[in-house]
Amino acid sequence: MKDSFSNSAVNIRKIQRPQNADGKQSRIADYFASNVFDLRAMVKRLSSQDLETMAKVMKFGGKIDAQLAERIAAAAREWAMEKGATHYCHWFQPQTGATAEKHDAFLWFDKQGNPIERFTGPELLQSEPDASSFPSGGIRSTFEARGYTGWDPSSPMFIMETENGKTLYIPSVFISYHGHALDFKTPLLRSNKTLSLEAVKTLHLLGEKKVHYVSTSVGPEQEFFIIDKELALKRIDLKFSGRTVFGRKPPKGQELEDHYFAHIPSRVQAFFNELEVELYKLGVPIKTRHNEVAPGQFEIAPIFESSNIAADHNQLAMKCIKSIALKHGFVALMHEKPFAGVNGSGKHVNWSMSDSTGRNLLDPGATPHENLVFLTFLCAILQGIHDNADVLRASIASAGNDHRLGANEAPPAIISAFLGNTLDKILNALETGSGDHVNAEKIMIDLGISHLQGVSKDNTDRNRTSPFAFTGNKFEFRAVGSSASISYPTTILNSAVRDGLAKINAKLESRAHNGIVSDNHLLIILKEVIKETKKIRFEGNGYSKDWLDEAEQRGLSNLSMTPNSLAVLSDVNKTQFLIDADVFNAEDIESRLAIQQERYIKQSLIEVNCAIEMAQTQVLPVCLDYLEKLMENVKLAKELSVASPANKIANEIGKEVSHLYSELNSLKLQYEKIANDESFEHHNLNNTTEFIAQNIVPKLVELRNSVDLLESLVPSALWPYPKYSEMLFGIE
Q: How far is CA 340 from the centre of its chain?
């Protein structure tokens, strides 16, 4: 059978699902995490004492001595080799947004020169990849090549399978010779630790003395597009930049809303089936899959996990989505805006906090004391967002996300928080000291405060226009881009909340008696916080023009483009909370700013190069050839003395080709200013990013408009690359 749009054969890839000893299909629970060296896998290979130590380290952190590392390495090698692994690697997250790995074989030689398999404690604990070609933002010189990866025991080892081999992966941090964090994982681990310390202090001040730690949990929803591989390879822009720099909207897009939650196409369903099998074996708890809003767009979502493991698993999910899509004849696009005119892709980071008793601190709860704890942490989060909104915005800044944020499909670049009608009323009542007008609703939970009537569970609808929305027992950071590593925005969010808690703790400590604060004193403090942070609470439509005007009146920042959003990282007053939390030092922040700026520049210039090449070598030649044919038709019609529309069409196309050529040269001129600018080589990154945003991005838009108009005038059979109607529709 042929696809009606792409003319490519529709093949449904068959896979062999895991089977039990009876040859029947296994249940998911039977093979879930079968390729993970977790505590269950360690039981048969470690002593009970070693197992207990590992359980504590994995849960609470801590160091592993050389002797224990040797025993774990031996057990991991034995387990991995039984499953067919021949190599191991330290798997880490450099600041490229992707992951990195260097494979070493278990092969070694004994003293007699005989080949053996070996994997030692030192090899488990540390490796030394060449760090010279990874982003460092000037924190180290190019000639300083040494970098170290160190095992992160809180995230279990796993086996990655390929068609012809298996490798043991060791989740690791990545640091420089001088100890600087060169990755995303190290700051995330630091932020988890410092947030836990501050949150425990808060709980102890509220009388919760039995709580020993607090952890953050994350459930990232991953959106992406699936298109036919054969079509994707015919487009230079998709191949090199991940998005279409040209492309006219098809006659039908998403306006009928018929793709959202619709039947999953058969080929895509086959892809999902294989994807989930592989992710389940890796211990990634994918729960949900469905069609997204835009044609060709889909989503998977996992069950919540600790933020560090969730970040690792999201990286695995993105890797598997891309590789397994190729096996099914697809290309998976993670870019935030691969197609103009339809929704782009985000990665909604659902975030919450739990204490050592297993209680979700963002669940309103069922008892008065739980509700006071909830209100305290809610206010601390609002304080953290209010005071550090600009840096939170910078944490999700990228060239790709600039196309998506605020485009009537995603949260705006203005950072605000949505709490829902009931919580908003309760905070207002706390602020004013009067609960007379709080509406009593069904299934209310008694807050235990005389002047308030209560708060109900699931008390709010979801607000998809808010960048930071409360959704029952968690916050949803909706502004994160689909291609981003969740580690960085989660690190900044953790640090911001830690800052909010620290400020509340300072007030609590000043009013504490015997280390505990009374309810009355607590409410006075919360009232102050509610009043101070009120301007970031917004319950309405974040897409509306009215909100932009209102936000400006409130004094909220609208950092609409990456350059101006990243600029806040140069302001020590705005980044001090990261230093106070011991997550970054001033040098770290400066280096990460440079890396984000360089990435913005490079991504933008890749797109420009794609556009120039496509316009020069594909669009212009096709249009000129067609124009020549039209002129021949005009000449023939004149010779035959017959009426022909060719002359009018030729005039229209000729005029637009001339306009295209002018826009192309204008873009090239702006591009050459950067390509030949020595200041870029000398890392004058602020000026370069600003120049791109103000001069090159608008020129690229103008060139696109000209090319897309010509796409509507030139016969489809002649157009040099696949159109939107071919790529977004027709997969069955």
A: 20
Instruction: Name the packing angle between helices 586-614 and 697-711 (round to 10°).
Output: 30
> CA quadruple 497, 498, 502, 508: dihedral positive or negative?
positive
Tell me how far apart the alpha carbons of residues 206 and 202 are, in angstroms, rounded to a whole number. 6
Tokens 């590392």 — which residue?
A: 69
Is 520 buried (19+), middle (13-18) or exposed (0-12) by CB count in 10 A?
exposed
CATH topology classification for 32-183: Ubiquitin-like (UB roll) (3.10.20)
pLDDT digits (tens, 9 = 90+) for 33-64: 999 999 999 999 999 999 999 999 988 878 89
- Asked whether 227 and 527 are in contact (CB, 8 A), the reply is no
Model-level pTM greater than 0.90?
A: yes
DSSP letter string over 231-250? Answer: HHTT-HHHHHHSS-SS-PPP
Closest CA to 37 of 68, 10, 58: 58
Distance CA 74, CA 68 (A): 10
Alpha helix ranges (H) inside 336-467 = 368-394, 399-402, 421-432
* Residues 6 or more apart in contact with residue 436 via CB below 8 angstroms: none
Q: Which contiguous run of DSSP H or E holds residue 317?
A: helix 307-327
d(CA 421, CA 676): 55
- One-letter amino acid of 688: T
Assign 530 a pLDDT band (cuts: 50, 70, 90). very high
pLDDT at residue 5 greater than cutoff 60: no
Q: What is the C-alpha separation between 10 and 328, in angstroms, rounded?
A: 10
- The helix (run of H) or strand (run of E) holding residue 110 is none
Domain boundaries, the chain: 32-183, 597-728
Taking the C-alpha atoms of residue 709 and residue 712, their distance in angstroms, rounded to an integer, is: 5
DSSP state letters, 165-185: EEEEEEEEEEEETTS-B-BSH
Element spanning 711, H or E = helix 697-711
CATH placement of domain 597-728: 1.20.120.1560
User: Two tokens at 67?
Assistant: 């002797």
